[in-house]
TrEMBL record, chain A:
Residues 1-21 form the signal peptide. GO terms for molecular function: metal ion binding; metalloendopeptidase activity. It comes from Paramylibacter kogurei. This is Zinc protease. Belongs to the peptidase M16 family.
């Protein structure tokens, strides 16, 4: 049994995501106004996924305005010059489409899944709200209450989420990745219509957006439609350069104990500062990806699972995780959930011993071979997941990667050697650049 | 300028393109095992979805959680292999297996490569027909389930669901969590898990969907190899039970900034002649998306919640109509008042022609979007069989939605929605809301 409940937000896939094998299905173009487009063909069903991703996220917010990127994402469903509030969603629904939107540290995205012949209408609607948003106080204020309730649901009601927010804040001394995407409650409560419109005018422009269309479409036709609907939009000359405050070197291990009486299952979790996939240079990130898979990626066959869960019986669940796709460097993490009767002091000691043992013993080449088999297979399985492919391109391109990087990722993973993995592991497992947290109901009982 | 868009909407009320023809074949294996197959050779993979009716509802009260534990332990070792050896073997084949139990079924899913499908299915066969269920593995999985059950004790969603289950289906398996209780799970033994396996996984209750690069001729022998060793019959099914809660409010005090509320009342059977009318009615009332009445009134106009939904839950052994909302303790009362008022408005007044048209175009247009990949389609095929829907259902389903009239919705709303019989469960410190009994 693979339990993921506690860690849904941070656990990566068992098999790392990779580019598809058949790159002939993917094509790209850029409009004269700077809007980049990716078309992924999948003709099995007359359905299309239409997405617009903006290269702006929570990490681009001004100090004191946390949550404005996400708040604006909600407000994009209000009216424009042409549309009444809520009409966008009514039209999508009346056309049998499903839709949603999402915000992260590095991107904000909007998508619809709909019958393929409705693509022109979706483009017309999405182009309209890229620059035509109109907001009234009567719409903005209830939506701010919605977001306060969203934060209540996601974070305040969940000690694990509060703990994660606290640890993430400790991981970044200077970089805005330390601030939660949804925003701090006291700052959300102060966000205004003017804040939202200023953020919108600064960042929402065709030359800061990426169009992704996946499904039963022909690239030439998508290009014609994109020129018709998105082509007339005016590019901005004032999009701020994407330079966030850089982290200084970390010089001391940070520890924290988070107490919440609602906690019934304590655990220990540690994050290390880690590099990210960089355009044209994914080697280190590929080695880290293979490291987390070998060390803690697959339940009982991983190095952690074999030793901590099966042999020493100190944990009931344990894993390593790493998300290499981010605009700036982020982190790599490990966690363990104690077996009954095991205190967190003993568990953490065994976690450290497990790291030492891996660094001593090195890579199990059979395990590495199995992993590479799975990666090759996942290129085939990925063809069956149209929306997943579309997301993969959106996440990568808004993190500063190129289409070539996305398509080269599978090869980068296949090229990783045992030496690469051990070097990357030694490099990243630096306690002086780590944050270790305990989540407990109360300090004394969890030791 | 709104007119431009309106002109665009008007034509959509006419036909949607018929979606890629989902051509289902009924395959019967040489030994008589039936499956529904969609042959889809464009990607060299095969997806299986195998459902056994009964699921956690087959557990007796004192062994509650046994079926859930059994399903979770299927991948933890077989006659020939321990848990790690089994997982290593599946990794080597790049096969993806899933094992789970719900209140109505045990479900096994598999995605395998065409190139090594025989080996992958041989491996899966060992998990299905020769699981070891040794004490070490059973204990390991028990610890994981117990950890999750312990966390449920302080999770507002789980607390509300427990209270509502017990009120809605007293003295029936539906009153229990599929995972069991901390007490019952602690007491479960490998023998109990073996019994649950014999009870739940038999050929008299199996529903199979297969989609991918395989022909009917190839599939028959595969099914016999994979499943032929299962017993012919399993445990008797529980009987269907009527909804048991009365109208009123139950407050469960819990220290949390946001109150979590559920509500429920009697529902209708999946085969009720009014099912489609009820389904369309629920879409308008509170069925997801940004456009329902509940979302409009509770979220968009008043900002009282992030999410409010109503739903029709028609299970194999019990039915209800319900919903959920979460609002700050000081605002939940207003949210519940609005929801109750919407229940009354729908029961008394039905829907408008515009609402009905919008719901139909959404429901009929969104239906093809579900056929989003081989494993999703395999799941739909198994689900159709377990719901006893005809094999041509996919092609007639939208016609049944479109046949619903405004009078049908009014009649079914009047018949089904009973504002006075709504039972609310509220977990938190809700201001102005208290238990009525």
């Amino acid at each position: 049994m693979n339990i993921r409940r506690l860690f849904v937000a941070m656990t990566m896939l068992i098999i790392p995501s990779v580019a598809i094998a058949d790159n002939e299905n993917v094509s790209t173009f850029t409009l004269d106004n700077g809007m980049q487009a990716v078309v992924i063909e999948d003709h099995r069903a007359p359905v299309v996924t239409h997405m617009v991703w903006y290269k702006v996220g929570a990490a681009d917010e001004a100090p004191g305005k946390s949550g404005i990127a996400h708040f604006l994402e909600h407000l994009l469903f209000k009216g424009t010059d042409k549309m009444a509030a809520g009409e966008f969603s009514q039209i999508v629904a009346a056309n049998g489409g499903s839709e949603n939107a999402f915000t992260n540290q590095d991107y904000t995205g909007y998508f619809q899944r709909i019958a393929a012949d409705r693509l022109p209408l979706m483009m017309e609607l999405e182009a309209d709200r890229m620059q035509g948003l109109k907001l009234t106080e009567a719409e903005v204020l209830p939506e701010r209450d919605v977001i306060i309730e969203e934060r209540n649901s996601r974070t305040e009601s969940n000690p694990g989420a509060l703990f994660s927010e606290h640890r993430t804040a400790l991981m970044f001394d200077n970089h805005p990745y330390g601030i939660p995407v949804i925003g701090w409650m006291h700052e959300i409560a102060q966000l205004s219509r003017e804040d939202a419109l200023e953020f919108y005018k600064t960042y929402y422009a065709p030359n800061n957006a990426i169009l992704i269309v996946a499904g039963d479409v022909e690239p030439d036709h998508v290009k014609e439609l994109a020129q018709k609907y998105y082509g007339p939009l005016t590019p901005s000359t004032a999009i701020p350069e994407r330079i966030r405050p850089i982290e200084p070197p970390h010089r001391a291990a940070v520890r924290t104990i988070f107490e919440d009486p609602r906690v019934r299952q304590p655990y220990v979790i540690r994050n290390y500062a880690a590099t990210n996939r960089k355009a044209g240079d994914q080697k280190e990130a590929a080695a880290l990806t293979m490291f987390v898979e070998l060390f803690g990626g697959s339940g009982v066959t991983s190095f952690m699972g074999q030793r901590m869960q099966l042999d020493k019986k100190v944990s009931i669940n344990q894993a390593a995780f790493y998300e290499g796709v981010s605009y700036d460097p982020h982190s790599l993490g490990i966690y363990a959930v104690p077996a009954p009767g095991v205190g967190l002091t003993a568990l953490e000691a065994e976690l450290d011993a497990t790291i030492d043992a891996f660094l001593q013993e090195g890579v199990d080449v059979d395990h590495l071979a199995r992993l590479k088999t799975q990666i090759a297979a996942s290129e085939i399985y990925a063809l069956d997941d149209q929306s997943g492919l579309a997301r993969r391109y959106g996440e990568a391109l808004t993190a500063g990667l190129t289409i070539a990087d996305v398509q080269g990722w599978a090869d980068a993973l296949q090229a990783v050697t045992p030496d690469d993995i051990m070097n990357a592991a030694r490099n990243v497992l630096n306690n002086k650049a780590s944050v270790t947290g305990w989540l407990v109901a109360d300090k004394e009982s969890a030791k | 300028m709104i007119r431009i868009f309106l002109s665009l909407i008007i034509f959509v009320v006419t036909a949607f393109p018929s979606f890629a023809e989902v051509k289902i074949q009924e395959v019967t294996s040489p030994n008589g095992i039936k499956a529904w197959l969609v042959s889809e050779p464009s990607i060299p993979i095969i997806a299986f979805d195998i459902a056994f009716r009964g699921g956690a509802s087959l557990d007796s009260d004192d062994k509650s959680g046994a079926t859930y534990l059994m399903a979770a332990t299927l991948e933890e070792g077989t006659g020939d292999m321990d848990a790690a050896a089994f997982l290593r073997a599946s990794e080597s084949l790049a096969a993806r297996f899933g094992f789970s139990a719900s209140r109505d079924s045990v479900s096994i899913t598999a995605e395998v490569l065409k190139s090594n499908a025989t080996e992958a299915l041989d491996l899966l066969k060992q998990a299905i027909t020769k699981p070891a269920f040794n004490e070490v593995a059973v204990d390991r999985v028990k610890m994981q389930i117990l950890s999750s059950l312990a966390s449920d004790e302080t999770d507002p969603d789980a607390i509300a669901a427990k209270a509502m289950r017990e009120l809605s289906f007293p003295n029936h398996p539906y009153a229990r969590a599929k995972e069991g209780t901390i007490e019952t799970v602690q007491s479960l033994t490998p023998d109990d898990v073996n019994v649950a396996h014999q009870n739940a996984m038999a050929l008299d209750r199996i529903f199979i969907g297969v989609v991918g690069d395989v022909t009917a001729d190839e599939l028959g022998p595969m099914l016999d190899t994979l499943l032929g060793d299962l017993p012919a019959t399993g445990a008797p099914m529980p009987t269907k039970t009527p909804f048991g809660a009365t109208g009123g409010t139950t407050v469960v005090e819990f220290e949390t900034p946001q109150a979590q509320a559920l509500w429920a009342q009697a529902g209708l059977d999946r085969h009720d002649p009014d099912f489609f009318a009820a389904y369309v009615m629920n879409r308008i009332l509170g069925g997801g998306g940004f456009t329902s009445r509940l979302t409009e009134e509770v979220r968009e106009k008043r900002g009282l919640t992030y999410g409010v939904y109503s739903f029709i839950a028609s299970g194999d052994f019990g039915d209800y109509i319900g919903g959920s909302v979460a609002s700050a303790n000081g605002r939940i009362k207003e949210a519940l008042d609005v929801i109750r008022a919407e229940w009354v408005r729908m029961a008394d007044g039905g829907v408008t022609a515009d609402e009905l048209d919008a719901a139909k175009t959404y429901l009929t247009g969104a239906y093809p979007l579900r056929f989003d990949g081989n494993s999703q389609i395999a799941g739909i095929l198994a689900g159709m069989q377990s719901q006893e829907l005809p094999i041509e259902y996919i092609n007639t389903r939208n016609d049944q939605v479109n046949a619903v009239t405004i009078e049908d919705v009014s009649r079914v709303a009047k018949r089904l929605l009973k504002p006075d019989e709504l039972r609310f469960v509220v977990v938190g410190k809700p201001e102005g809301v208290s238990s009525t009994d």
